[in-house]
Design a protein that fits this description.
This protein is of the alpha/beta class. It has three domains: about 80 residues, Arc Repressor Mutant, subunit A (Orthogonal Bundle); about 90 residues, 3-Layer(aba) Sandwich (D-Maltodextrin-Binding Protein, domain 2), CATH 3.40.190.10; about 110 residues, 3-Layer(aba) Sandwich (D-Maltodextrin-Binding Protein, domain 2). The protein contains ten helices and 14 strands. Strands 3, 4, 5, 6, 7, 10, 11, 12 and 14 form a nine-stranded mixed sheet that branches. A three-stranded antiparallel sheet has the order 9-8-13, with no helix packed on it. Strands 1-2 form a two-stranded antiparallel ribbon. α1 crosses α2 and α1 crosses α3. The longest helix is centred in the first third of the chain and has 27 residues. It is elongated, with a radius of gyration of 25 Å. It starts with a helix and ends with a helix. The C terminus is likely disordered. It comes from Paraburkholderia strydomiana.
């Protein structure tokens, strides 16, 4: 028995809890997966998997053994990457998840820059509108712009800060008129995303804070869909500055109520990843690259903001 190969197959079964899916991802036959797990159980003299016609589950011993297998395979991956780096053959694969808004703005440029540094690197990309625990669990790193840090066992590193802007297209404004005070928003069609306030928007000026009730006619998870809806003249929305910067520059979208402060407009960009003690070298190098790239970008922005006297 090739025990290491059997361990890899069992680890995939434990991940998928489905023999057919494990076989598909490994590129081998269903019978090979079944036979390998059976031989491994015979070698260990313990049942690892409960099989029925409808579902697959791990026994208590299987759950414990699965954790040790994951740790072993992680260490082997680290060793392989270390030797590849020492031999000048860096490369590998990263599972990256990203919110659709971040993927449409910075992510592809970021990956292109990293490929210049690591030309052998490959990426498996998942794009989402609503981040879930499953997405994070099945990814090495995750990029998202959330207003607050979720309760998670993952490491959450802030990379950048952007802000929400209230916008509309010229066609909508010519048809419905320009809102000149926050209170006038109550009579306008409003488009919202699921991660933004849906019923009340708060504003602050020299007189204090004012809460305005808005009337959403469209509520969706996708900021990109809301952006396209605003461009089509469907209504007014609050969107991340980073998402609409080019449209604001060319006049396709117009900022509204810039004379008052929109409360709760901060939207940090987060990098999520596992804080495991033996992090794979491929992942560590990518995280260091991302953090350093944003640090340099922030330093350049601060430098440009200084006006010589």
């Amino acid at each position: 028995m090739n025990q290491l190969a059997a361990i890899r197959i069992f680890a995939k079964v434990a991940e998928c809890l489905n023999f057919a899916e494990a076989a598909k991802q490994l590129g081998i036959s269903n019978s090979a997966v079944t036979r390998s797990v059976a031989v491994l159980e015979q070698h260990l003299r313990v049942r690892l998997v409960n099989r029925t016609t409808r579902r697959v589950s791990l026994t208590a011993a299987g759950q414990s053994y699965s954790k040790h297998c994951e740790e072993l395979l992680r260490q082997i991956s680290v060793m392989d990457e270390f030797m590849a780096t020492a031999a000048g053959q860096t490369g590998g694969s990263l599972r990256i998840a990203s919110s659709s808004s971040y993927a449409s703005i910075d992510l592809l440029e970021l990956l292109a820059a990293y490929r210049l540094q690591e030309p052998r690197m490959q990426f498996e990309l998942t794009v989402f509108d609503n981040m879930t625990d499953d997405i994070m669990a099945n990814s090495d790193v995750c990029f998202s712009a959330e207003r607050g840090v979720r309760d998670s066992s993952l490491v959450c590193r802030p990379l950048a800060q952007t802000r929400d802007v209230i916008v509309a297209c010229p066609a909508y404004l010519s048809r419905r008129g320009l809102p000149r005070t926050p209170l006038e928003l109550s009579s306008h069609d409003v488009l919202v995303t699921s991660d933004a306030p849906g019923r009340y928007w708060d504003f602050r000026d020299k007189h204090g804070t004012q809460r305005v009730e808005v009337r959403p006619i469209l509520n969706t998870q996708s900021p990109l869909l809301v952006k396209r809806a605003v461009q089509a003249g469907l209504g007014i929305a609050r969107l991340s500055m980073s998402l609409i910067q080019s449209e604001l520059s060319d006049g396709t979208l117009r900022p509204l109520l810039t004379h008052v402060e929109l409360c709760g407009d901060e939207r940090p960009v987060w990098l999520f990843y596992s804080g495991q003690p033996r992090m794979a070298l491929t992942l560590r190098r990518f995280i260091d690259f991302v953090v350093e790239r944003y640090r340099q970008s922030e330093a350049e922005e601060n430098k440009e903001a200084v006006i010589p006297v």
